[in-house]
Amino acid sequence: REKDNKYKIRMPKLRVVQEYKDNRKSIVEMERNIFKFKKSSEEKSRKREKEEKFFRETFMYDKEINVINTATAECSVPSERRVDLPVTAGEQLDVIDVTEGHAVICRNSEGRYGYVLVEHLNFR
């Protein structure tokens, strides 16, 4: 009997059940990812609101925020002050308002506002 059991080919009995468990795990992970996405979008909206509030207080901007034009940054420029917007080369910026000098007020994709020199922007 021991020899018979030794050479007997065993088929996995729980293979279907294991596949079912794998599918079930993937569905649960997808549901978790959906909830994470909603959470991150809520955090982003809070962050944008905070940035907009800071922008209105710092720049004393009472008008409605409208995008005048879009521009692309030609080169990377770090910010020297908090009111300056740090930009990287190729970044898309929304132009919000034009100032008297050589700077414009822009908003980046993260929702941050600040001054950017016209020399560093490429308008299409």
Automatic annotation (TrEMBL):
Where is this gene product found?
Membrane raft
Q: InterPro entries from the entry? A: FYB1/2-like, hSH3, SH3-like_dom_sf
Keywords in alphabetical order? Membrane, Phosphoprotein, SH3 domain
Single biological process term from Gene Ontology:
T cell receptor signaling pathway
Helically-extended SH3 domain sequence ranges: 55-121
**Record bears the keyword Phosphoprotein:** yes
Q: What Gene Ontology cellular-component terms does the record carry?
A: membrane raft; plasma membrane
Q: Does the keyword Phosphoprotein apply?
A: yes
Chief place of localization:
membrane
This protein's assembly is summarised as:
Interacts with SKAP1, LCK and FYN. The phosphorylated form interacts with LCP2.
Q: What does this protein do?
A: Adapter protein that plays a role in T-cell receptor (TCR)-mediated activation of signaling pathways. Required for T-cell activation and integrin-mediated T-cell adhesion in response to TCR stimulation.
Q: What is this protein called?
A: FYN-binding protein 2
* Designated gene of the protein: Fyb2
